[in-house]
Amino acid sequence: MPLPQSALAPEAASTAPALSYRRTVDRGDVHRWAVSEVFLTDYADLTADKYLAAAQLPPAHYYFGDHTGHAADAPDSMLLLECCRQAATCIAHRGLGVARDSAFHVTEWTLDLTGDTPPPAHDRPRELNIEAAVTRSQVRSGTVRAARYVLELSHGGTTFGRCDISARYSPAEEAEIVRRYHRKSAPPLSDSLPAVPPGTPVPPADVARRDPANVALADARHIAGGVAAVVAVPSGHRTHFDHPQDHYTAMILMEAARQAALLVAGTGVRITGYRSTFARFAELDATVRVSAVRRTRDEVAVRFRQHGTVVSEIAVGISGNI
Fold it and tell me: What radius of gyration, in Å, describes the C-alpha atoms of the chain?
């Protein structure tokens, strides 16, 4: 699908400031504890609801760089999603005034990769430019409670992808009341879970990984037209649980969907994007069941259920079946 025109108006683009790649933004602006997990390096507020951001992709990373096959030759789709998440989170805090202690809930998330990113120049890390157009879809008493981000990704002047993120924001106290009401109890934190999740983990090579710690699925089995498994992530994972979480994040479910798609289609395929909806939180203290079925030649449909209820549906785009 062809990308739309740049999200920036011509006059805004002509006066856009030069972004820096010399240091990262404040880790709190992107919800990270470890500075090594911050990839966003700059941010600029251009006009009303128009923003720029910059990110430097790490040349090596124990999680985002842990790939075999085709994925080892290009920036990880999960890394691009993470850069987009960081950009949207930074804009929410700095541009929209969303309070630091607010609860974030992603409701929809898509990524369309329209081509290969150019190789890094002179063996330097890739530098990512992000143009963002933001729609404040819900404002209550002057406070932004929901927003949609349309992010266009480019490298070296070449646009290669688009990411759309829709998110809701709730004050911390309100979010806690709602979670307790639906759960009937306080949610556990990830650091209270067993270091090694139960079940038989999927072999790393089957999901184009080298390190077993980066496998997100266990108890995989064949079903009609696809596979079934359960989400299984080590509680000490330094990226997924950089800081304690009270649910399986959208990024974790995206990774689980990517791996489920590879189990269905084979590790020789190229990931071309994701179309995701998140209906509710995936709780840590109940099994999250995964089913993945090849819907078309170019797409694997992945569904996540908990207590029999669908919590998320993610369509994974693929190409080049080998």
Answer: 19
